[in-house]
């Protein structure tokens, strides 16, 4: 049976992290990812003629396994595995597997390396039949490890990794997906880190393209080279060196130009000009724009990108927000870039997304092709759309999709996006700070003075709920009645607001219509999902399914189609992805397996059984509902007896109670006490309480046994039932009872949220203005008079 992907990655990380010891995650990643690389190329290319990667004899993963436990394991890995593999494939900056300072010495090094190799012997990590650019375990395993390494590395060392979500946005907004690409199409990242951003752009292209990257850090550039190989781009050219002072990709004395350039350079690099004379730059990167300030290198990287683009080239660069508004030299550069029409758009991102810093950043989108005809810059402020993920913020699937849709389609949306004319930008002295053009703050909930003084809910507040009245025109008149011009009163009791909304014919019809709308999608999707076959590609499955759901809900009133889309993407990540990979590997098989728990002493204990694709509750709900209902009744009866016992113990507890003589209230002590006081007339009340307790305790014991027996019988029935399941039955259980039922509940919850928002807002407005100031003053006077009268009766005359 195939292992669940989520379990594989989490166990892989847990094992790696456990072995890390005192080493910094930024260093440990080099060892782990080199092991992943060696395992992959060994599985994929060993013995394959004309393979893009050469595996020298004796330098494969199986040869590394043979070194486990040897006292000189580190030295042997360097000599027999790493050096031959690096030399044969022109790989440099490989980590030292015999470094005692990082890996420990003697037995510590032997154990650490032996255990590390053992992690990658997992049979589920078999790359021989997987494609690096498709639905395989490699790409996701790499992404999972890199995210965790970046998180653990701290602020100073997260620059080797651009969050995958941001990389996906950049890849989708540069336009490579829509372009006619070929092997002659070039993509370049001047600060490529581990190469993840470069690979994301390549993944968006319709055909294979040629990749170029340069990285200053030696170890990270080596990682990028391996990453290219791991993701089926072995011909990618990755150079090591400082891009600004020593660019490696040139055409004669000038910089080589590319079709697409993407980058996530170090923010505000204070040493960008070290070793460079910007005023006499041989590549004329600053000639027509201006020289960036000595301590702020952001524009140095952006101008390098501009210079590296062909006349039809397109690019995207992640920069801190300061580049949009800082003055002096940067203001001059910004002015010249805008005037030349090179900036197509700006996307503001949430704060605390990146591993190297917590400050908010933006994506500056460059487009040379349409520069001469550009009349404005498309601005998008996505700073409010994210989720918390541990110490960092993270873009959700819906945030990514909304950003890409809005930018690529140039959709103007209040408080989110706007096409800003060059004339308006010029009036603002070429300041591109997004808040100057997009008011993304929440609308202030203003208090109405006249409403507080004279009573009545302001008509303007009710009109602000227009989206509801558009769907249910008569509902407004049901909830509100006229007080005076411009002000309304609540037409129903405050406690009846929810009922009035839910039971209104128009609102009920809306809910019914939305339920039918989901049912239509559910029916179509069920047929498609039940048609999945072994060997299917889950990433293609979720792409088609999610895009179809998003389109199905686009334009629907009161409900945000991106919120609906997110429910599916969350469930995919939580459960459905693992299920689809199981189906892709094994087909529609409901295989049970035992849960074995091993304690610290190595002793195994059987904890029962489970089935990943078809969990037991699905079998019970569909085939043994009566038995489950009977168990539920037994559990309720048992709970009732337990409550009576607790009540009896509380009633007769304490120093004077019937249980006062007992050290502990249990059957043995109660029976012994009853024997003690037998025939004692003065202890009749105590005996009655103890007998009542004993009766209930016996009922509880019998109830527990009946419940346990019933649960065991149902468990056995369910377990046996798996052997009788046909493939159509499994499909029904998984697709209808599990996947679509869960999504149905989530989307129904979305509709509940919509109605609750209206209920809460109407109630809030009613309570805000229900007591006008004069009435409040009268009420205070009444209460004051009552207090004074009470004090007077007590002899405290004021």
Task: Explain what you see.
- Residues 10-120 form the N6 adenine-specific DNA methyltransferase N-terminal domain.
- Residues 624-651 form a coiled coil.
- GO terms for molecular function: DNA binding; N-methyltransferase activity; site-specific DNA-methyltransferase (adenine-specific) activity.
- The chain is an alpha/beta fold and 798 residues long.
- Among the domains are: 1-153, Up-down Bundle (Ferritin); 449-614 and 727-798, no CATH class; 621-724.
- The protein is 51% helix and 12% strand.
- The protein has 28 helices and 18 strands.
- The strands form five sheets. The protein has a nine-stranded mixed β-sheet with strand order 3-2-1-6-7-9-8-10-13. It has a three-stranded antiparallel β-sheet with strand order 14-16-15. A two-stranded antiparallel ribbon has the order 4-5.
- Strand 17 and strand 18 form a beta hairpin.
- Helix 20 packs antiparallel against helix 27, helix 22 runs antiparallel to helix 27 (727-769) and helix 23 (616-623) crosses helix 26.
- The longest helix is centred in the last third of the chain and has 43 residues, at 727-769.
- The protein is globular and about 110 Å long.
- It starts with a helix and ends in a 5-residue tail after the last helix.
- The model is unreliable at 131-136 (pLDDT under 50).
